[in-house]
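Q: What would this complex look like in 3D?
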Amino acid sequence: MSYVYLYALLGVSLFVLGLNALIVHAHLLRKILAVNVMSTGVFLVLVALSSRNEEVLPDPVPHAMVITGIVVSVSATALALILMLKVNRATGKNELPDRGRD
Amino acid sequence: MELILGDVPWIVVLIILPLTGGMACFLFPAISKSLGLLTSLAVVACVWGLGWQLEEEGAQRYAIGGWGAPLGIDLYADGLSLLMLVVAALVGLGISVYSCGYFSPDKANHFWPLWLFLCGALNALFLSSDIFNLYVTLELLGLTAVALVALADGAEALTSAMRYLLISLLGSLFYLLGVAFLYHSFGSLDIAILAQRAEPSPAVWAAVGLISTGLLLKTALFPMHFWLPAAHACAPTPVSALLSALVVKASFYILLRMWLEIFPMVGTSFAQLLGLLGAAAVLWGGIQALRQTRLKLLIAYSTVSQLGYLFLAFPLGTSLAWKGALYMLLSHAMAKAAMFMAAGNILVLGGHDRIAELSSITQRLPLTLTAFTLAGISIMGLPPSGGFIAKWLLLQASIESGQWWWGIILILGGLLAAAYVFKVIGHVFTQDEPTRQAGTLPTTMEWSALVLALVAVLLGLFTSWPLAIMEIGSPFGTGHSG
Amino acid sequence: MEALTILNWVLDGLLGVSLFSLAWLALASPDIFKAIVLFISFGLLMALAWVRLNAPDVALAEAAIGAGLTGALLLAAFARLEDISIGASDGEEVQSHIQHDSNEEPK
Amino acid sequence: MNWNTALPLLIVASSLLPGLMIFCLPENRVVTRTTLNLAGALLKIVLVGGMFWGILHGYHFETRLVLLPGLDLVLRSGPLSMLFVTLSAGLWLITTVYAVGYLEGSPYRSRFFGFFSLCVTATTGVALAGNLITFLLFYELLTLCTYPLIVHRGTEEARKAGKSYLAYTIAGGALLLLSTVWLYTLAGTLEFTERGFLSGLDASLHPTLMIIFAMLIAGLGVKAALIPLHGWLPQAMVAPAPVSALLHAVAVVKAGAFGIVRVVYYVYGIEFSNSLGLTLPLAMLAAATIIYGSLRALFQDELKRRLAFSTVSQVSYIVLGIALASPIATLGGLIHLVHQGVQKITLFLCAGNLAETLGIHKISEMNGVGRRMPWTMAAFTIGAFGMIGAPPLAGFFSKWYLGLGALDAGQGWVIYILAASSVLNAAYFLPILYTAWFKTPPDSWPAERSFGRKETAWTLLVPPLVTALLTLALGLLASAPFNLLEWARLIVSRGFAQ
Amino acid sequence: MERSRWLLPLLLMLCLGLGYTVLSMPEPVEGLPEMLVDNMEVAGVSNPVTAVLLNFRGYDTLLEMGVLLVALLGVWSLGGIPDYRESSPGLVLDIMSRQLVPVLILVAGYLLWVGADAPGGAFQAGSLLGAAGVLLLLCGWRIGNRCSGLPLRFLLILGLGMFVVAGTGLLLIGGEFLQYPSPVARELILMIEAAATLSIGATLAAMFLGSLPGGADK
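A: Here is my prediction, written as C-alpha cells for the whole assembly.
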C-alpha cells in the first residue's frame, strides 16, 4: 500500500466533495469553485495511479493529460466567471432561478 | 480525378478546414459571413471526398504524427462516423445559409468564428478514436455551444447558458474520471486497443457507470434533461437548431461507439436501464411538449422525447436496431433543424412564438409553414418520411428480439408526437387575416428550412443510400445480438 | 532507512489531511472572499502534492495556472461582483447595450 | 422505362404533379388552376382506360421501387385494384367539376385543390398498392391530405371535427403499422397473393395471427367506419360538400373497406381466415354497424348528418359481403363497393346543391323543394331509391347477391339483417322525398341565390345528374359486355379455391 | 432539508465505490511507458512530458489551444463587462510590477527554452507571461488602440495557427499530419512552443480583462 494510493483516495474524496458542494450551494461562484475542486480531484487520481510501481519512472502520458486538463479547466472557469457576471447583471441575483439541481 | 481524390487525406482536412475557417473569421470579422458560408460548402465537399474514399477502401485509420495507436492518436472513420459527418455537414450547411440572414452585424462577428469552431469540434469528435482526445473535443464542443447560447441577450438565455455550462463541465469530469480508470487498468487510450484488452473488472464497471453518466448528462436523457428545454428554446434560432440536431447527438455518438466496442461484455441489465430511461424520455418529453404554450419550448421538449427513441436500441442490441436508431438520428437531425428554423422565422416576423396566436403570422409564411409540416411528418413517423423508416426498423427489431414492449413505446411516442405537432398545425386553418407586421423575411431563411424538411421527407423514399453508408466497416457487426 | 519512510508517511498524511480540510473550508465558508483565498492556498498546496508525486511539470502548471491565474480571475470576478451589487457600475454604457439587439427578444 | 413498369406510377403521378403545381399557384389564377385540375383528371381516366385495354390484351403492369432491403414499394394492376381505381378516377373528374362551381369566390382555393388532388393520389395509391407496406404508406398519406380539407372552412366547429378525425385515424394508423411490422417479422413478406400468404405458417402462430387480424381490422375499421370507430364520420360532415361527397362517400371510407378486402382475401385468404373463425365475428360486427347506422340516421334532422350515418351503414354491406365466406356474397360486396360510391356521391352532390343555392341544411327546411329545383331532386330520388334497393337500380343487385350469398354460406340470419336495413333505409329516405315533392314550398328560402332561368349553376347541376344516370346504367345494363358483374366475377373466381 | 436526506448517503456510497475501485485497480499488463522510452530518442526532446505533449499527442495540444481560443471568443462575445475600474495603482503595486514584469518575462523565456530537457514548456511559460500581463493590466496599462485590432487578434490565434500551419506543412512534404522528421524535430517543437507561449499569455491576459480591449467593435 504505497503512498500513491493515499493520494488517489484523496483525489476521489475531493471529487465527491466538489460534487456535493456543486449540488448543495446555490451561489454561482461557489459552484465554479466546486467544479475546480472536482477537476483537481480527477487530475489527482490520474497522476497518482501513474506512479504505482516506484522502481520505474512515472508514466508521462497522464502528466500530459493533466496539464491539458488544467488549461481546459482554466479556460472553462474564465468563461463561467464572465457568464456569471452577465447573469448577475441580467437577473440581479447570483443564483440560477429555479435552484436547478446539480 | 481519382488520383486527386484518392490520396488526399480528407480525414485530416475535415478537421483542419473548419478550424482555419474559424480563425480566418476571427481575424477578418468584416467578411466573416462569406468565409463561413464558404467553409460550410467546403466541409460538405470534404465529407463527399471522404465518403468516396471509404466507399473504395472500407474503414480508414489515420495515425496522426505517424506514431500509431497506443502511443499517438489515431483517427478512425467508418460507416458510423461517416453518417454522423454527413448529418453534421448537411445540417451545418443549412444553418450557415440560415444564419446569413438572421444575425445583426455585430452579433454575426461573434457567431461565425464560434460556429466554425463548433463545426471543427464536431468533425474531430466523429473521427477520433482516442478516449482522451474525445474529452478535449467534448470540452471544445461544450464551450462553443455555451458561448453560442449566450449570444442571445435575454436574462433567460444567460441563465440557461450558465446551467448548460455547469452541466457540461460536470458531464466532462465524470467522463474524464471514467477515462482515467480505463487508462490505468488497460494502459491505452485507443478505443480499438481497449476493445481487445477489456474484460469485466470493478474498474471497468466503474468506468462504464461514470462515462455513461457523464455522456447521458450531456445527451440530456430523461432524468438529466432539465437543462435542455430552456437552453434550446432561448438560444438564437440557428443555435437551437444546431444544439438539437448535432451537439446533443455528439455525446450519444460517443456512448454508442464505446458501447459497441469497449462495453459489449456489460450485462444486458444496464442496457435495459438505458432502454427504460429512453422510454421514460419518450413519454415524458411528449407529455411536456403537449403542455407548452411557446413554440420553441414545444420543439425543445420534442427533442427530449425523440432522444428517448435513440436509447431504445440499446436493450435490443441487434444490428437492425442500431440501424434504426441511426436512421432516427439522421431524420430527426434534419427535421428538428427545419422545425427550429421555421419557429425562428415565425419569431422574427411575428415578434412572439405563442402557439395560440400563430395563425395570423403563418398566413404570411407559406414556405415556412410547409417546412414545419413536412418536418412534423418526419417527427411523427408518418409514412413518406425518414422518421417512418426509422420507426419501422426499430419496431421490426423490437418484435424480432421478442422485447415487443419497446414497440409499444414507439407507437405511443408517435401518437404523442402527432398530438403536439397537430396542436401547432391546427392553429393554421383559421379565418384570421394575415398580420400587418412590417418587414419581410429574407428568402434564404425560409428556403433553408424547406430544403432541410424536404430532405427529411425524401429520406423516407430513398433509403438505400444512407443504409449503405452505415454498412461501411460494419460498425455494428460486432454488436451482440439478442 | 525505516525512519525516512515513517517521516514520508507522516508528511504525506499531513499534506493529504490539510488539502482535504482546505478544500472543505473553501467550499463551506460563509463568506465568498474567504472561500476564494482558501481556494488559492489549496491550489498552492496542490503544487506541493504534485511535486510529492514526482510530477514537476504538473506542479509548475498547477502553481502558475491553477493557483495563480484562476485565483486572479476569481478575485477579479469577485471585485466586479461587488461593483455591480453596490451599483457603482457606470450605468449608460450597460443600458444601451441591453436594448439594442434584434427584435428577437422573447416578450 | 417500358409501359409495363411505368403505367401504374404514371397513374399515381397524374394527380400528384398537378396537385403540387396548384399549390404554387397564387389565388387569383382561376383559369390555370381549373385547367390543371381537369387536365389531371382526364389524363388519369385516359391512363386507366389504357391500363384496362392492356389487361384485356394480357399485359401485366407493375412498378417496383426498393424501399428497404427485402421490402419494396409495389404498384400493381390486379383486377380488384382496377375496380377501385376506375371508380375513384371517374368520380374525381365529376367532383372536380362540381368543386370548381361550388367554391366560386371562396378563399384559399389553391390550397383546397392542391390537397384535393393529393387525396386522389393517395386513393389511387391505395387502390394500386401491391403489398401491405405500400398500402400503409398511401393509407397514412390519405389521412394527412384529408385533414386540411376537413378544416378548410377554419370555423371552430371544423377544427374540432378535424381534431376528432385525427385522433381516430392516427390511432388507427399506429395500430395498422404495429400489425404490419408484426406480420412482416412472422411471414417474411407482405406481397398480396391470390389466396393469402399466411396459410403456410405453422399452427403455433395461429393465436398471434388472430390478434394481428383483430388489430388490422381495428386499424382499417376506423376508416371503414365500423362501430365503435365511426365517431369521426358524422362530425366530418362540416366540410364543404365536394369534400364530404368525394372523400366521405368514396375515397376515405372506401379505402378502409378496400383495405379489409385486401386483408381478408390477399393477406389471410378467405379459406384460412374462415378456418381461423375470424370471418363470423367480422360479419356480426358489420351487421351491427348496418343496423346501428340506419337507426341513428332516422333521428338526424340535418341532411348531411343523415347521409353520413347512412354511409356508415352502407359501407358495412361491403364488409358483410366480404365476411360471408361464399363467392356470391363476395360478389355482392364488391359490386356494392361501386354502387354505394356512385349512389352516395349523387346524394351528397344534391345536398351540396340545396345548401349552395337555397341555403337549406335541414330536412325540415326542404318542404316542396322539388318544385323549386326539380332536376336536383330527381337525381336525389334516383339515388335514394338506389340506396333502398329498388329493383331497376344498382343498389338492388348488391342486396340481391348479398342475400343469395348469405343463403349459400348458410348464414340465414343475414337475410333478416338485409331486410331490416332495407326497411330502415326506406324509413329514413322516403320522408325526405315526401317533404321535398309533396309539401307546399315556403314563400322564401333561407339564402336563395337566383341563377336566372336555370335552377342553379350548370357546374353544380350536371355532376349529380351524371352520377344519377350512372346509377341507372349500372342497374339496367347489368348484363351488358364489360359490365361490372363480369369484372367482379373474375375477381371472385381468383379469390376462391375452385 | 429533504434533499440532503438522500444526497449524503448517495455521495458516500459513490465515494466508497470509487475508492474501492481505485485500490483494486489491476496493474496494466503492457503499459505505455516502455514503448515511450524506446521512442524517446526519435522524439527530438528529452523531457518525456513535453515529448508526449508536443510530439506523440500533439493533436491533443492543438485542440486544446483551440479550447483556449474558443474560451476567449466566448468571453468576448459576452462582452458588456464594465472595464476594470481605472484606480491609480498604489505605490507598492507600481514599484513591484516594475521589478517583477521583466523577471517574469525572463523566467518565461527560460522555462520555454528548458522545457525540451527539464520540467517546463509552453503552458507553464505561457501562464507566466499571462501573469505578467495581469500585473500590467492591474497597473492600468491598456493595449494601444492602434494595435488592439488585427495585431492583437493575430497574436491570439498565433498558437493554434502555428500548429495548424506546421501540421499541414509537414503533411504537404509527404509525412503524416504533425509528423516531425526526427533531425529537425527539436527546432520545430521549439518554434511551435514559442508561438504557443505567446498566444497563451495574450489569451490569459485578455481573459482576465474580460471584455474587448478598448471596446473596438462594440
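A: To summarize the key features: The CA atoms of residues 18 and 25 of chain C lie 10 Å apart. The radius of gyration of chain C is 21 Å.
Q: Very helpful, thank you.
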